[in-house]
Amino acid sequence: GFKNEIPFDLSLTKNDPPAQPELAAFPLTNKRHFSSSWYSLYRWIEYSIINDSVYCFPCRHFTAHMISPGEVKGNIPFIDYGLKCWKEPRKKFTSHSHNKRHIICMERWNDYMLIRNNNKKSISHSLNVARVQDITENRKHIMFLLKATLFLAKQGLAFRGHNETDNSNNKGNFIQLLEMFADESLAVKLKSRYGHYTSPEYQNDLIHIIASCTRKNILSKISSIGVYTILVDETKDISKKEQLSFVLRFVDSDYNVHESAIGCYHMKKSDAESLSHEIIKIISENKLDINKCIAQCYDGANVMSGSYSGVQKRIQAIVPHSLYVHCYAHRLNLCLIHTLSSLSIITNFFNFKKKKKLDVIHLERLVDTRWSYWYNSLKKINLRYTEIREVLNILQNDSDEKSRILSTGLLKEISSFNFILILCTMEKILEVIHCASCELQNSSLLLPVAINLIKCTKKNLLLMRSDDVWITIEKLAHDKAVKNGIEEPSSELRPQRIKHFNKNLNEYHVTTTAGQTNPSIKIELLYTVIDRFTIEMDNRFSEETCEILMISEIFNPSSEDYFNSKSTKLQNFINHYKYFQFNYISIISEFSTAKSLIERTNMQKPDIHFILKTLSELPSAFTETLKILTILLTLPVTTATNERFFSSLKRVKSFLRSTTGDDRLSDLMVINVEGEYASHVNLEEAVDMFANIKNRRYPLIL
Fold this sequence. Notes:
4 domains, alpha/beta, about 50% helix
């Protein structure tokens, strides 16, 4: 090769870094060698291993085309050939550093590197800023869609329109809501051909994400012990599909009772096997421990309550301690239905009311499964009895023959004293039962309280079985009859004459009344209804004596089992729920301390709520006792929450929305029914979920 040929182990272009190899031992020339320490002293140095020579990086790549005195073009040191004399090389390096040409080349190199580094940084920064802005705008768009979805779902409103094309005047609630409230940047995205994410498929994604976050918020409320109860019921929706509603009852960390819906599920088959499999599947999908399902609550249908192959028995085969509770409200309803349906005087009265309705007054719908409507209807008729008769009198002169005939017949039926007497009697009876029914629908009601409520209802009904109550009812009927000019048959009610008792009986309490009453109506109506109803209650609420449910006596100051660690009720409870591994030694100590602590509060009759509040202030001292109370609070009473869920289902899946898909319907129902939890959904987290469930056209995550 040429004498001054540049070795190939040096930098090839000005974009390459200076060649500065680190060797364990550099080649010797006259017992001297190159030192890598010179790199830090003279950063322009390049070392060629091939030639064992030093070159100048800036002078090679940023040549100033200047010839110093004594130099020959094409044979310039540090450029065309390297320095390889290692005797006092630093003097030569320093001399070269002061060379005018070298100084100019160094300035050019420094300027080049500064511009190059700034450009790299500027381009990278600009790209990063642009990407962040793009992602921010995309996330803002998705968050706006989520807010619109949340609003419509919470309010139970429809999303889609009949015609969603650009030429449509009404594209449906979802798109119309977006267009009305979108800012300029969002409006541009909505008008774009792609990436507006408003199609039905994307709506389903948005709805599902919010529903999933809502369920997550619900499940996060369950206390650390993690126990829960399942409440399940079925109904047919507007499209005749069998829908199963699934509700969880649980206690949070502050010992507040919650009943929250998880969703509704289309059941193609309604046999016990299919239902139990679906329930287990729902529990698994929501990542709940099935062993912590302490109870199950259904209605009394054989498929649910069957003791051999019903749903409750199949669940107990997996979780033996999962107690079955027949819905208390349903049982109370059955008691009344069976009582009234067996009495002809009552069935005739209510059948008349069901067949002949008035268009001029709003009466409650009379159906066997909703007997509370009967009380409301009776109350309205009793309250507006005079006005109803006046309207019927007017309708007797109506031009329509059918209206005249109907109003005449109705007026004749309700204008008898017998009708008024039955009306007043049934209103009094149903009033007592209605109070119990309303209280049983309270989702936070405790099972011990429900048991006492049933006992009190029975007691109050038995107290009505007296002549004093009957005289009061007759007096009300008499006053209403007189006010409306209705004659009373002498066989039904006679004027009462003042009775004079033997003076020798003055010191005694007389429990029977004197004078003529109506023994036939009194016995057939008042006494018989009360007697049969209380018998029905005894039959249908007999399991309330179950020892497991009687654990509440441990927290009843009037009971001999009050904080009694030796109570058989406590032993049965611990044995039944042995999965939770109660520490009996700790229970003995805690019960003794708890009893003393409650007594020091000077509370005369502390109820279970007061006891819970007092002990929960010292959770580490009463671990086992609070565990018992948590299970007790979680035990179910009714499926009223499921019934309320079905009421919402009728509003959400209406006639115009009868083709709503099963998954979409379940998600919409959760958001609608559990609106409070849905309102606290983390929208940033929801956007991340939207980005991750499938590949999106636009980036949403950095």
